[in-house]
Amino acid sequence: EDKVVQSPLSLVVHEGDTVTLNCSYEVTNFRSLLWYKQEKKAPTFLFMLTSSGIEKKSGRLSSILDKKELFSILNITATQTGDSAIYLCAGRDSGYALNFGKGTSLLVTP
Amino acid sequence: GAVVSQHPSWVICKSGTSVKIECRSLDFQATTMFWYRQFPKQSLMLMATSNEGSKATYEQGVEKDKFLINHASLTLSTLTVTSAHPEDSSFYICSATRGGSYEQYFGPGTRLTVT
Questions:
Q1: Who contacts A3 (Cβ-Cβ below 8 Å, separation ≥6)?
Q2: CA A1, CA A8: separation in Å to the nearest integer?
Q3: What is the pLDDT of residues A45-98, one digit of tens each?
Q4: Among A47, A104, A109, B66, which has the minimal tally of Cβ within 10 Å of its Cβ?
Q5: Each residue's pLDDT tens digit, B68-84
Q6: Which B residues in the span 22-41 are in contact with A, Cβ-Cβ below 8 Å?
């Protein structure tokens, strides 16, 4: 059975801190790993990773995939209160469906 | 582009009644639509995958007779929760893909509360 595990489950940091969120996966016929940010409504797309070792970056967020060790990390530098959200990672197999982890709830305090 | 809407955004119904939730792709044709359910502090759990004009594929443990999915056109899928019970109270989110792309575009979700 496919499995996506995120850690930590929740995290509280101060503004300006750097955080690293972890995602390990076991997905049969793995194709890609996706990161989403979920605030009060539906998830918004952050990154899709398909190749090992290639960092994807968007502003203060970056992510990398290790297909050998079956994990991905999401880094957020210089955190802001607006980064407070649940961060979800999802593994995709050869189909279209996504297998989501439970998410990491991040709270950034002023 | 790639906007997905859901209606209603919030619904309260009595136990035993049925509720229909609509998912629409507003500016593209959705070849595949997905329905997810999210309980408080839990992740999104895929319920079913639907392709236009064919029967939905349900995930293990999801009752197809209770959660009726219709994908009658390339821009509309509906999820009907039949004979709803309080344990069906949840956040229901749909997503859609277009063309040959694997990227899923999520709707804003529907909060269902069954009293």
A1: A25, A26, A27, A99
A2: 22
A3: 899 999 888 899 999 999 999 999 999 999 999 999 999 999 999 999 887 788
A4: A109
A5: 999 888 999 999 999 99
A6: 32, 34, 36, 41
